[in-house]
TrEMBL record:
Organism: Embleya scabrispora
Protein name (record): HTH cro/C1-type domain-containing protein
The HTH cro/C1-type domain, residue ranges: 41-88
Domain of life, per lineage: Bacteria
A GO molecular-function annotation: DNA binding
Matching Pfam families: MLTR_LBD (PF17765)
Length: 276
């Protein structure tokens, strides 16, 4: 099963490529369909042909021997498999793993803290391995008071899969949980040998069947922005949009900034802002 092996870049690379072959049919890529197949989706030799590389080169890549494959081959395979921008980056992270040498700072820099506080709608900062490291007042009103959550559980994975309130809070919990898993997969791509990340994934896998199911489904990888509906106990439905903002001086952190999607949600946020 792919979770415990997920921090092994070779295994993660193989699982990812197999899943992307399986989602394409010959007709999707302009090939003739020759009837029943022994495998789902494209064959290895078909991907190699589409990428204009040798079958041996592609098999080497799918076996996790990426160090013996050039960047040009990676790009050609990504094109052949119709990978999205997020998926292409994930492929490159797995094929060219490099340890992040900068020590993660537990606290955000003062300028970012000022920005959080000035941003009226909810916003929070996610650090390495999905840990929530900072938030503003509105985030505690809309989601939960992160300060009351024990630090070891204060992560997007821990809250989504370990806090029963999440399934009540998010109207489309399944989609939001899939996005959380996808984010953790990108973390694997950045730091495939991180022991803390490996321990976090093992814990989620051992306590949440939902996490295991969604991880095995190879969730999507493009998470720069989106929408969500919150079922708030005080003001009812909140429709929010969000954007992911990456501080240029700290690649291990991302700011998730929300905004109301309509006038009704804006009014509801204003009501919550007035709560003591």
């Amino acid at each position: 099963m792919g979770i415990l092996a997920g921090v092994d870049p070779s295994t993660a690379l193989r699982e990812f490529l197999v899943s992307r072959r399986a989602r394409l049919s010959p007709r999707d890529v302009g090939l003739s369909d020759d009837g029943p197949r022994r495998v789902v989706g494209l064959r290895r030799e078909e991907v190699a042909s589409l990428a204009a590389v040798s079958v041996d080169h592609y098999i080497r890549l799918e076996r996790g021997q990426a160090s013996r494959v050039s960047d040009a081959v990676l790009d050609a395979v990504a094109e052949a498999l119709r990978l999205t921008r997020g998926e292409r980056q994930y492929l490159r992270n797995l094929a060219r793993p490099g340890a992040t040498t900068a020590r993660e700072r537990a606290a955000v820099r003062p300028g970012l803290r000022v920005l959080l506080d000035a941003w009226g709608p909810p916003a929070y900062v996610v650090g390495r391995n999905g840990v929530i490291v900072a938030w503003n007042r509105a985030a505690t009103r809309v989601f939960l008071d992160f300060g009351e959550v024990p630090p070891e559980r204060r992560s997007i994975g821990g809250l989504m899969f370990g806090d029963p309130r999440a399934k009540t809070l998010y109207a489309d919990w399944e989609r939001k949980a899939g996005e959380t898993v996808a984010y953790l997969r990108t973390e694997v791509g950045k730091r495939p040998r991180d022991p803390d990340l490996a321990a976090h994934l093992r814990e989620l896998a051992s306590t949440s069947p939902d996490f295991v199911r969604l991880w095995s489904a190879q969730a999507k990888f493009d998470l720069a922005h989106g929408t969500c509906r919150i079922r708030h106990p005080l003001v009812g439905a909140l429709d929010l949009t969000y954007e992911s903002l990456h501080p240029s001086d700290d690649p291990d952190k991302v700011v998730i900034a929300y905004a109301p999607a309509d006038a009704v949600s804006a009014a509801a946020l204003a009501l919550l802002d007035g709560e003591p």
